[in-house]
Design goal:
Layout: E1 3-8, H1 13-24, E2 31-36, H2 44-50, E3 57-59, H3 66-75, E4 81-84, E5 90-91, H4 95-105, E6 110-118, E7 124-128, H5 135-139, E8 150-153, H6 154-159, H7 171-181, E9 186-197, H8 203-206, H9 210-223, H10 232-244, H11 247-258
Parallel strand pairs: 1-2, 1-4, 2-3, 6-9
Antiparallel strand pairs: 4-8, 5-9, 6-7, 6-8
Helix pairs in contact: 1-2
Length: 267
């Protein structure tokens, strides 16, 4: 089973090499790696060229944003399973092989695990969890999947037409929402399989696109014919439902607390 992984890189030279190596050093052999750079000027392309003989496809083309760049990358992919990793994030060495086992042993179309939160220097500052994906809970902002620890079947990516390139804030969440609305089967697995780097300049760390992300959720709510999306009571209900009525998630969090000192530094 071939796994295609895309990294989009734009002026992330500070972290890019670690991201690239985390994919190239996977213990699973059948990985197709694609790196997309629309025009970095900070030395990123020199880093990419350093590993040209180990990267399957390098795409140097301008794009209309991250979602468009990812679509360009996956257009070159030939794997049965897709995943993508931002240039400032990292995969654990056994991530791909672990997910492949689950794709072989289940009928899931989208599989997600949990992840570590790391800072600029690679120090682990916390853990972040994927929920059971529910489109309604997602529209209420109560349900998330850890993108770096999520893989999906290529056929479903193609079925929904890939990423919405006009979405500049939550293209990953919209992809999962679209697949769920088309009937894709989601599965969540235990364990922490990636490092999600959170720092002041990162998109999530800055909060720069929160308003745009909220507009996307409003659009999804209209698709679901949901009324009262801004209701504080409903938001709290779905938040509680997703987090407190999920025994597997509670158990995973308890184990995470018990093993809180298992790692101190990720990279």
């Amino acid at each position: 089973m071939k796994v295609s992984i895309v990294t989009i890189s734009f002026n992330q030279a500070e972290f890019l090499e670690k991201a690239i190596l985390s994919v190239l050093n996977q213990d699973y052999l059948d990985v197709e790696y694609i790196v997309v750079d629309p025009g970095s000027t900070d030395g990123s392309r020199e880093i990419i060229e350093k590993y040209r003989d180990r990267i399957n496809h390098i795409i140097y083309e301008s794009d209309e944003g991250p979602a468009d760049g990812l679509n360009k990358g996956f257009a070159a992919a030939t794997g049965e399973i897709y995943g993508y990793l931002n240039a400032d994030d990292i995969l654990l060495p056994t991530t791909v092989s672990h997910f492949v086992k689950y794709f072989y042993s289940s009928d899931a179309d989208v599989i997600s695990g949990h992840g570590y939160i790391i800072d600029r220097g690679g120090n682990i500052t916390g853990k972040t969890f994927s929920h059971k994906f529910d489109p309604v809970a997602y529209a209420y902002g109560a349900c998330v999947l850890i993108q770096q620890s999520t893989f999906f079947k290529a056929e479903w990516f193609k079925k929904v037409g890939g990423f919405n390139k006009s979405n500049r804030a939550s293209w990953d969440g919209e992809l999962c929402f679209d697949m769920a609305m088309q009937g894709a089967k989601f599965k969540r697995i235990s364990g922490f399989w990636s490092g999600f780097r959170l720092y002041a300049e990162s998109i999530t760390g800055s909060g720069e696109f929160q308003d745009k992300a909220n507009q996307v959720l409003l659009r999804h709510a209209r698709q679901l014919n949901i009324e009262g999306l801004n209701s504080t009571m409903m938001k709290r209900w779905y938040w509680l439902k997703v987090r407190l009525f999920d025994p597997a998630l509670i158990m995973q969090k308890m184990i995470a607390i018990w093993k809180r000192n298992e790692y101190k530094k990720f990279d």
